[in-house]
Amino acid sequence: MATNDIKTNSLSQTNSDEAAVTKKDRMLILTIVIVLIVIAALAIFGFLAIKQGPDTVQGQADATEIRISGKLPGRVAEIFVEEGAKVKAGDTLVRIKSTLIDARLGQAEAMENAAAAANKKVDAGTRTQIVQAAYEIYQQAKAASGIAKKTYERMENLFAKGVVSEQKRDEAKAAYQAATAGESAAKSQYELAKSGAQKEDKEAALAMVNVAKGSVNEVNALLEDQYLVAPYDGEITTIYPHVSELVATGAPIMSLQKNDHWVVFNVRETLLKDITLGSKLKVKIPALDKEAEVKVFYIKDLGTYANWQATKSTGDFDARTFQIKARPEKNIENLRPGMSVILEEQK
Fold this sequence. Notes:
Layout: H1 2-49, E1 56-62, E2 65-69, E3 74-79, E4 86-87, E5 92-97, H2 99-121, H3 128-160, H4 166-195, H5 199-223, E6 227-229, E7 234-239, E8 246-247, E9 252-258, E10 262-268, E11 280-285, E12 290-301, E13 321-328, E14 340-344
Antiparallel strand pairs: 1-10, 1-14, 2-9, 3-5, 3-8, 4-7, 5-6, 7-9, 10-13, 11-12, 11-14, 12-13
Helix pairs in contact: 2-3, 2-5, 3-4, 4-5
């Protein structure tokens, strides 16, 4: 009897444990189901409640920038500004010193004086002084022709080796031809002086004066570029050479950024429905924490290389990319090229 009671109690205990486990599993499953239902409900609510924001396009600020250069080769003598300096139109930026041009000016002025002296004395007849002056002019012209010839031959050799451009070779050739013509004219004047002053002599002397004046004017035109000035208001962004460095003809000395800022965007054509030339757009400038209004002045297709490819073979199309430029309606203080500008879809 005792054995049967033990077996009955053991069986009852097992059934009780199984019932407890089954109830616990059901509660766990019910809890998981409730959690999943709540998550699904929240997801559906969020999808319905959250509205899709407007399309935004990021662009950047930009400005016109030019390089200051001159036609006078020489050595940088003085730089009157520094990078970041604000300048006004007409401000002197740099002085270039050229000893070669100074020497050419002295030579040209000497030839002008000699020609003027010869022209002044030609009426007095053939005198020793007149002949001597004509001879000196001829010798100067001859020396100048020799220098021009050597320069042209040097340029011809450098051009053959690909060191200098064809334009430089042609300029040297033209200078040589002009010097040869000057030598010929000076020689004729010298021979006329020896043979006596006549009407033709007077005309030739006057012509020599004009030629000499032309040479002086040419050198003075080059010397005008020894002082380079700002062509308009702006900011110096980069200075390339240092004081005492040599610069060639047309070499950039510094970069000047003009005070004409604008903003530029690259947008898909699907966003152009409300953007036309002259239209006004509202933009944000995160770096300045400002909003501004800009006016469109430029719209251009960037070409097929900038297309937005369709994601589906049917029901969609390739969208072309357009570049838009717009100027601020009012001056934006502290706006600098390179700053990000945000354009939201226009409503």
